[in-house]
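Running log. JK asked me to keep both predictions on one page so they can be read side by side. First protein, sequence followed by its tokens:
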Amino acid sequence: MSVMKRRYRASLALATGLLLSSWFYLETGHGAAGRVFTLHIVRQPLDAALLEFSRQSGVQVLFFSRVADGRYSPALDGTYTLDAAMVTMLSESHLTYRVINSQTIEVVPARPTASRDVEELETLHCT
């Protein structure tokens, strides 16, 4: 095999590897984490705030309506990363989020922490 063919194949393999790693990076949500959004969202019920966040950011937000029922989101007014915006919006709700892909997140109930599990066990009475 000639030197030119080997260089061509090596270049092609490198380009393919870079393309696949870039795609994987974006599809696993890491691409969304670095984006910055200018947001103006007033304090309101969480479901309405999440819809407004989606409208202003262009990020699709998935959640079951029962998860947001009776919960409120604090106001957001300024520039936020995706993580900072979601942490602020969900701070009063006992909810968290997970990145589905570079354009979609899902709001879900937060898992209990170990200390909350221990507190619950301490109040359990057996007779």
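And the second, directly underneath as requested:
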Amino acid sequence: MRLAADHPAALTKSNSIVYSARVPKTIAAVWDGEAARAGMSRSDWLRQTVDPERARVTGARQPRRPHRTADPALLFQIAKAGTLLNQLAHQANAAAIAGSKADVLHTLLQIERHLDELLRREGAC
């Protein structure tokens, strides 16, 4: 006798878990191919294959979002600004303890100059 909570249509986050397993890439490729041929997502195919009587198909395979690329030079500049902000946070914490705010102001000025330089470059492009 099956309880209502055991019915596949009643699966929710509160009464189910995500079950994962590590498999060789060759096996994963075979399973992915089988799922694609069946027009199912990997999860739906595995549920149906492991326990066909209780499997709940949630829908067709969802297409992946296209991968977007970003300008590497821009990413570098953003990372550089992030590094400066991290340094500022460290100095602000140290200044709060030591009572010196000159180091924090110096770092803020460096960040401002760096961002101004970025804006000038973008305006020139």
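Observation for JK regarding the second prediction: The mean pLDDT is 76.
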